[in-house]
């Protein structure tokens, strides 16, 4: 049932404040600022390496998870696209564990990667949305996302719930490994507790985003740029847009611009920049200047402070609420989902069932 919404995707985008709250409540104690003693098949204090593997949007959640686990828990993470992982014959090191990410829990390549790790005898965990799925059953333990059924082919609420779990695991792993103090952890839990409210604020930008999307529906190619945890989000923005609007889109780490993609920039090429004002904001500004100098159109997604620190011609801004740096990718997922959604609606594509795609990819 779509309720008052035109599409399941729209409904699922709007459900995010609620489902993220439910998901986080499984792992965190907002009252005390602590982490709940949830069951985990992975002993974060003991392992030297974590293998993460998944497909599509779930893979991109894992990529953000890698940044967090390495930064806050000093835990080395290897991450692969599952279709590569399963065949590349990598050595599994001792004292390691594996974590798989899947909304459906039925993705063929992810399941094959899981079995490869199982064969190697290491502990297996999965972040899954469907609790009675094959991936859930074959894991030693699961971290369930409480997103509820996701019907739209484009993953939205499952993605932000996956990120919420990765953020919680980074805190848990940081405490277990002694890289975070109780105070650090409490501050991070506080940041996460703000996420549902910040997403509600971001949803208020919908009509502004819709206006920008109408113009986007007239172009053939779009580039997304971001740094640090906003880099995987740039990849996710491009995936979402191409999936449902059929506009060719690519995501790049902003620092890679001059290593190739800058050659594409002209006045027909909109560049969407994901840049909250954070410790590397200035670096991204200099990449934007390079785009502007070549006549590129910039759509900057930032906050008040970020907007006031950029003065460029030919720029449109989407002004987000100020978000704590740690949780920024969860909140900044909203404008990229809405941008893809409204672009597809403006183009009249089948948003919930885009051509050539299946919700669950059970064959390789
Ligand atoms: O069910 P899974 O999370 O394992 O699915 C993985 C991908 O097929 C999925 O995320 C796909 O990329 C989405 N359509 C993206 O919106």
Automatic annotation (TrEMBL):
It is found in: Cytoplasm. It is an enzyme of class 2 (transferase). The keyword Endoplasmic reticulum does not apply. GO terms for molecular function: glutamine-fructose-6-phosphate transaminase (isomerizing) activity. The active site is at residue 359. Residues 40-179, 212-354 form the SIS domain. Its EC number is 2.6.1.16. It catalyses: D-fructose 6-phosphate + L-glutamine = D-glucosamine 6-phosphate + L-glutamate. The keyword Transit peptide does not apply. Homodimer. This is Glutamine--fructose-6-phosphate aminotransferase [isomerizing]. It comes from Chelativorans composti. The chain holds residues 244 to 607 of 607 of the full protein.
């Amino acid at each position: 049932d779509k309720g008052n919404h035109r599409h399941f995707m729209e409904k699922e985008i709007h459900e995010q404040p609620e489902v993220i709250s439910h998901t986080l409540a499984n792992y965190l104690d907002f009252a005390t600022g602590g982490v709940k003693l949830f069951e985990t098949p992975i002993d974060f204090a003991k392992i030297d390496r974590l293998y993460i593997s998944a497909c599509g949007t779930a893979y991109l959640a894992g990529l953000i998870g890698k940044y967090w686990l390495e930064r806050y828990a000093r835990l080395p993470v290897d991450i692969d696209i599952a279709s590569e992982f399963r065949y590349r014959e990598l050595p599994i090191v001792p004292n390691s564990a594996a974590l798989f990410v899947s909304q459906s829990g039925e993705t063929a390549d992810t399941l094959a990667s899981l079995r490869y790790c199982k064969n190697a005898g290491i502990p297996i965990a999965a972040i899954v949305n469907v609790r009675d799925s094959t991936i859930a059953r074959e894991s030693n333990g699961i971290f369930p996302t409480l997103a509820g059924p996701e019907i739209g082919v484009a993953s939205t609420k499952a993605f932000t719930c996956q990120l919420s779990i990765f953020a919680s695991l980074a805190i848990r792993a940081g405490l277990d490994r002694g890289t975070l103090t109780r105070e650090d952890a409490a501050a991070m839990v506080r940041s996460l507790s703000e996420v549902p409210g910040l997403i509600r604020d971001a949803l208020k930008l919908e009509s502004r985003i819709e206006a920008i999307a109408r113009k986007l529906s007239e172009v053939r190619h779009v580039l997304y740029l971001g740094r640090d945890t906003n880099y995987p989000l740039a990849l996710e923005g491009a995936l979402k847009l191409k999936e449902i609007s059929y506009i060719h889109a690519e995501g790049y780490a902003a620092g890679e611009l001059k290593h190739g993609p800058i050659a594409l920039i002209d006045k027909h090429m909109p560049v969407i920049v994901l840049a909250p004002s954070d410790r590397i904001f200035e670096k991204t500004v200099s990449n934007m200047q390079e785009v502007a100098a070549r006549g590129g159109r910039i759509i900057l997604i930032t906050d008040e402070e970020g907007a006031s620190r950029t003065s460029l011609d030919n720029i449109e801004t989407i002004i987000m609420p100020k978000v704590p740096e740690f949780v920024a990718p969860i909140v900044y997922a909203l404008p990229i989902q809405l941008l893809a959604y409204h672009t597809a609606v403006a183009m009249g594509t089948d948003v919930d069932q885009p051509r050539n795609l299946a919700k669950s990819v059970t064959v390789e």
